[in-house]
Amino acid sequence: MGMKRFVYLLLTVCLCATACKKEESGLYDSPAQASDYEAEIKAYIAKHDIKDVERDPSGIYYKIINPGTGQDAEVIGPDDIPTINFTLTSLDGEKVLNSSNGIPTNFNGRPLKDHIAGWQLGLRKIKKGGIIWLFIPPQYAFGDAGISGLVPANTALFSELKLIDF
Question: Which residue ranges does the record assign to the PPIase FKBP-type domain (predicted)?
Fold first, then answer.
């Protein structure tokens, strides 16, 4: 992928994710909504024979690959700016939708609270240097809006995140 196209995709995700921002008081929808996609997520996990996956009360499934380093108090907060490596893949077609291609990004200084809710939940489960796999129902990703030409509406996602710094 050319650098120009990568920058375009990255900017598109940033703009759309910001448009999907939820207020802190209403960060998460009803966990019952997540159950609509629970079968799809469980099928993906089984198909790929992924072990030791946990379920967050929100309905997001996750696997901590590396918890990272640091003290318990060193967990990213909503106003912190994460620097991450990431990959977003659709569960239905297993197509890579977007990736930082191993290049750390802080999405132009965007704080955690302005990222998709799935990332907000997942990144708080690891510390600096940590890696987490997230299996995200659509309502914790881009919902019924999706991202035109990139993420279809109501798409459950798999995301691998490495928290470089915050």
Answer: 79-166
Whether residue 157 contacts residue 88, with contact meaning beta carbons closer than 8 Å, is answered with: yes
User: How many domains does the structure of the chain reveal?
Assistant: 1
HSE-up of residue 97 (Cα within 13 Å, Cβ side): 25
> Within its chain, how far is the Cα of 60 from the centroid?
10
Identify whether the C-beta of residue 57 lies closer than 8 Å to the C-beta of residue 125. no
Give residue-wise pLDDT tens across range 11-58. 444 444 444 444 333 344 455 555 668 999 999 999 999 999 999 999
CA neighbours within 13 Å on the CB side: how many for 99?
A: 12
Confirm if 159 and 133 have CB atoms less than 8 A apart. Answer: yes
Q: Which domain holds residue 157?
A: 3-165
**CA–CA separation, 76 vs 30, rounded Å?**
24
CATH of the domain at 143: 3.10.50.40
Q: How far apart are CA 39 and CA 107, in angstroms?
A: 32
Average pLDDT of 118-123?
96
